[in-house]
Write a structure and sequence with these properties.
Pfam families: CtpB_N-like, PDZ_2, Peptidase_S41. One of its GO terms (molecular function) is endopeptidase activity. By secondary structure, the chain is of the alpha+beta class. It is built from 10 helices and 19 strands.
């Protein structure tokens, strides 16, 4: 019996070793097959490259062929991954500093069509009336079908003072409409701020650049100085903000949040799994906040709106945002060129992916143009002969700030201001009831 036990145990051990050997052998052959297939596919590429260099009707520099192959490879991935030749790579770095030559529009590829994400405020594109969602069908005499973003950018940028004509299709147009724009140096001031009325501040973020968070803090400091009795509310305007630097979106959110997750990213590479949280350094007081968004609010704008919405720090008002929930990493390459590669998706603190969905406003308010209408003549008590004068003095404070005409015509802005005023009234009623 004991010998049988030992031999049966030996048979089991042999069986495991043999099975392990066969399994390992199959794995090796599979890995070898995969490797062979990959080399065959690379051979296909080098064969085509060699044939083009040898037999194409004209001689083409090898660098142009390599750049073309890289562009084609990245174009097959997604609308935001792209190759940046040395000149474009330098221009991209200039963009984040807020000064460049061109028209002043952020563009993307949507459903295969070159589309405006948003015009940048105070630029030729903005002044000409171009809008978020406009489809650029032609640039000068070149159709944009199958055109890459980088090719479009090259065509539209140029020497300041020169004209360029683009053809745009919009939902309400029967046919494409031509816009002739004059290129100029685009200097983007990323933060604009003012006091709308006594106690109510307004800050517009145009883009997220290298100094946006610092400029925001400086603007808030000025608004607080203008309102020494404290802010009754603030409007943070992210409309037509195409985004920009991720770290600046995090820093801007951190200004209004004292704690908690702001955004997190996930991708295939473990290094792309990142989490960004509020540090609470220099956070603003917990006054009422309304965040304005629209279809031109993209990327970094959506990070800020999503974080403030998830933490219930403010009311998001307007129309659904653009829906760009992917992260692009800029990777410098050896010949002073660069690679703009989509490496992750980002998520709001509650786990929402914004990709292709956008941020949904808490209160949807569509854009409209307000015009004042004369009410006609109406009698009031003060118009009657021998009316009594008030026996009490008017101790009300005269407002030091007055809304300009442009703000009065901005329907979404007026609704945001109305919401803040209603917030203040309800708060006072609660105090009286207590």
């Amino acid at each position: 019996m004991p010998p049988r036990k030992r031999s049966s145990g030996l048979l089991i051990i042999l069986a495991v070793v043999l099975l392990g050997g066969f399994s390992f052998g199959n794995f090796s052959r599979c890995a070898q097959a995969d490797s062979t297939k990959e080399y065959q596919e690379l051979d296909l590429f080098t064969d085509v490259l060699a044939l083009v260099r040898k037999s194409y009707v004209e001689e083409v520099p090898l660098k142009d062929l390599i750049y073309g192959a890289i562009n084609g490879m990245l174009a097959s991935l997604d609308p935001h991954s792209s190759f940046l030749p040395p000149d474009m790579y330098q221009e991209m770095k200039i963009d984040t500093r807020g000064e460049f030559g061109g028209l002043g529009i952020e563009i993307t590829i949507r459903n295969g069509i070159l589309t405006i994400v948003s015009p940048i405020e105070d630029t030729p594109a903005f002044r000409a009336g171009l809008q978020a969602g406009d489809e650029i069908v032609k640039i000068e005499d070149r159709m944009t079908k199958n055109m890459t973003i980088m090719d479009a950018v090259k065509l539209m940028r140029g020497k300041p003072g020169t004209d360029i004509t683009i053809s745009v299709m919009r939902e309400e147009f029967d046919k494409p409409k031509e816009f002739t724009l004059t290129r100029e140096i685009i200097k983007v001031r990323s933060v604009k701020a003012r006091t709308l009325e006594d106690g109510y501040g307004y800050i517009r973020l145009v883009q997220f650049q290298e100094r946006t968070a610092d400029d925001l803090r400086a603007a808030l400091k000025q608004i607080h100085k203008e309102n020494p009795d404290g802010l009754a509310g603030l409007i943070l305007d992210l409309r037509n903000n195409p985004g920009g630097l991720l770290d600046q979106a995090v820093a801007v959110s951190d200004v209004f949040l004292s704690e908690g997750l702001i955004v997190y990213t996930e991708g295939r590479d473990q290094n792309s799994h990142l989490r960004f949280s509020a540090r609470g350094n220099g956070s603003e007081a917990d006054y009422p906040l309304v965040v304005l968004i629209n279809g031109g609010s993209a990327s970094a704008s959506e990070i800020v709106a999503g974080a403030l919405q998830d933490h219930k720090r403010g009311i998001v008002m307007g129309t659904p945002s653009f829906g760009k929930g992917s992260v692009q990493t800029i990777i410098p390459l050896g010949d002073d060129s660069g690679l703009r590669l989509t490496t992750a998706r980002y998520y709001t603190p509650s786990g929402r992916s914004i990709q292709a969905q956008g941020i949904q406003p808490d209160i949807e308010v569509r854009s409209a143009t307000l015009t004042e209408k004369a009410e006609g003549f109406a009698f009031r008590e003060e118009d009657l002969a021998k009316h009594f004068e008030s026996s009490t003095e008017d101790n009300g404070k005269t407002a030091d700030f007055e809304l300009d005409e442009e703000s009065r015509k901005d329907y979404q802005l007026m609704r945001a201001l109305d919401l803040l005023k209603g917030w203040r009234i309800l708060k006072n009623l609660d105090r009286q009831a207590a």
